[in-house]
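Please decode residue identities from the backbone states below.
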């Protein structure tokens, strides 16, 4: 990484910082032609992925590229990345200084850290509303995290209630498409039905940040309409082809028949933009990963047990599907 803002007051020109210390990564190029996807953009994307992987409480990452005098500001979230228009830092010095000061003055939440994961007395914790009371869940350690920018970005923490250190809990944090059925509801149903050998449900919620349900389009991107970008390419349109053809002409007199059709097409493009919602599930049980099996025999015996439920009561995903608890897609 060429340049950036780091969470290390002792960092100097030649300091080597870890990815978990990076607040805002940057990329410098000596020529303006590098301001394209195959060069500066790709390099900055790699840095953002490393930051998101190393910092388990990061919701998004801000960054910037400077290619000779041309600067862009970026945000990387679980839908991908978006960037500002380029500007010349020599000709627009005020904008450059304002951008740098903005990075310096931002709070942790504005830089992309999850404010629902708090720290007190060297302990990280979350607070949930359950059974009409507030519970504090202490985070013990990271169990698993996905190394990606766009996607579900599932992260799991081993945890426990502040008043009960002996009962283990697992917090599963992920960004799911809005149309996906909530995993927490399925697990709660499985627990209520007494399904054995499935992790017992404890709690689930949509994470709320600044008093709003945490999602990409509204809470992180603040309703930014990416369809107005110069290089925007819609994935598909929900408007019938004949309607699109009628309103395809970009120019037209005010009040012409093409105007409402263009409006419909624009609305359809916005509706077609995906959205991911920040969801959290808490379970009462967890097992060891299969790669920690004590022997190959133990691993094979466990897999065999999943097939023959009559021997040990293990319920397979197929059985849960037949019971109507799981849908066809039972991916983690």
């Amino acid at each position: 990484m060429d340049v950036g803002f780091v969470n290390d007051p002792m960092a100097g020109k030649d300091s080597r910082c870890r990815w978990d210390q990076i607040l805002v990564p940057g990329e410098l190029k000596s020529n303006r032609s590098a301001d394209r996807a195959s060069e500066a953009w790709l390099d900055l994307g790699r840095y953002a992925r490393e930051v998101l992987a190393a910092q388990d409480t990061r919701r998004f990452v801000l960054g910037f590229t400077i290619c000779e005098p041309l600067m862009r500001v970026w945000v990387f979230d679980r839908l991908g990345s978006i960037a500002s228009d380029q500007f010349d830092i020599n000709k627009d010095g005020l904008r450059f200084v304002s951008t740098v000061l903005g990075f310096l003055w931002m709070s942790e939440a504005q830089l992309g850290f999850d404010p629902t994961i708090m720290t007190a007395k060297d302990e990280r914790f979350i607070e949930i509303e359950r059974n009409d009371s507030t519970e504090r869940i202490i985070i013990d350690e990271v169990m698993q995290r996905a190394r990606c920018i766009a996607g579900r970005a599932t992260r799991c923490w081993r945890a426990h209630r502040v008043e009960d250190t002996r009962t283990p809990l697992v917090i599963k944090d992920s960004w799911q498409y809005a149309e996906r059925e909530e995993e927490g509801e399925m697990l709660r149903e499985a627990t209520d039905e007494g399904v054995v050998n499935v992790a017992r449900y404890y709690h689930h919620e949509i994470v709320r940040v600044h008093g709003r349900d945490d999602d990409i389009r509204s809470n992180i991107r603040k309703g930014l309409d990416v369809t107005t970008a110069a290089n925007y390419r819609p994935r598909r349109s929900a408007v019938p082809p004949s309607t699109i053809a009628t309103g395809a002409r970009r120019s037209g007199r005010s009040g012409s028949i093409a105007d409402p059709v263009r409006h419909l097409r624009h609305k359809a493009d916005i509706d077609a933009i995906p959205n991911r919602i920040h969801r959290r599930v808490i379970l009462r049980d967890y097992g060891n990963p299969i790669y920690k099996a004590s022997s190959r025999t133990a691993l094979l015996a466990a897999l065999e047990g999943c097939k023959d439920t009559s021997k040990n009561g293990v319920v397979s995903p197929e059985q849960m599907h037949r019971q109507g608890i799981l849908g066809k897609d039972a991916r983690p």
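Observation: Residues 19 and 50 are 6 Å apart (CA to CA).
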